[in-house]
Amino acid sequence: MTSPTGIDPFAPAVRGLDEPHPAHAALRALGPLVRVRAPAGGPAWIVTDDTLAREVLVDPRIVKDPAYAPGHWDPRTAGLEPTAAAQPSLTTTDGPAHERLRRAHAPLFTARRIGSYAGRVTGHARRMLTGLAAEGGPVDLMADFTTRFPLTVVCDLLGVPLDRVDQAVAACRLMHGDGPEDVGRAMAAFADLAAAALEPGRDGLAVELRARVPDLTESQVHYLLFTLIYAGQLTTDPSLGFLIAGLLGPGGRSAGDADEVVRETLRRYSPAPFSLWRFTADEVELAGVRLPARSPVLVDIQGINTDPGRAIGPDLAFGAGPHYCTGAQLARLELAAVVEVLHADLPGARLAVPFADLRRHGVGGIQGSRPVSLPVLF
């Protein structure tokens, strides 16, 4: 039950696009539950087994509320959201409180509802990619497109005026700034974007969500909209990079249909390598190990999804259980739209450098990795 010798699963690293992080295989080799040192200090436990992971993701004794984090953790160092009591959200509430928020969001993100936006989403992808192609010369799609496209889509659907997309892009980049003042500026910008989506006369999912949570304050609704905007960019951005690199790389054009390409990309390059932090609300026994209350627990999504011995079935790219990602249908639609546009409108697109020269950068912690650059010739 110790960390893999010499391997830190939370360390930042730069490696080849198809070069797996060595920690995932090393963790699997140690068993279904592995004790490691958390980035914020003290012990944490990583679940490496698919069956155990699905049990953990539905266990009501293992909660998302940061109020149950170890008392010595610094919330900023640990990357924690406000507690559920301070700021209710889909990613921090549990039990009945989470069920209420889930019921409010769910009708807005059904497969049928999201599918009805396919034309709009594909239109944004076509306009942006053909516009870049018209500029001529190699274009680094990681420099702007992979961030701007998902933000354009989510702003459009929420009802944020599209002339505010630059503000959304800047706010997302500030979230990765060097100090708390950057995050503060970003959160103020996100609140401004949410307020714009809720202005009288606006027509979008933000207005519908507001009507479905009448008991929440305006600032609490703004936070819900922030989570939709920021999460919609944070995970889809790197997935787009890996998807496009795979499509334009060796053998990519002969891949299967768009849905299959999207599924395989999400399995191999999970949007998040680990789940968000969970904590034991009481003493819990997992895989024969007794974890004290307030123990941090992670699910190794990337390691489980790419386990060569894993049985065929649904992967964990978007989680499982009551906290299954609300935006999963939208993310898949965005990725499929890019596949469609590249095949139908830009069949001559190709990588401007060999696939083997592409690199991915992981910032460390529980966050995922992202292609450093993606130069493309149209």
From TrEMBL:
InterPro entries: Cyt_P450 (IPR001128), Cyt_P450_B (IPR002397), Cyt_P450_sf (IPR036396). It comes from the Bacteria. Residues 68-95 are annotated as: Disordered. Belongs to the cytochrome P450 family. PANTHER family: CYTOCHROME P450 YJIB-RELATED, P450, PUTATIVE (EUROFUNG)-RELATED. This is Cytochrome P450. It comes from Nocardiopsis changdeensis.
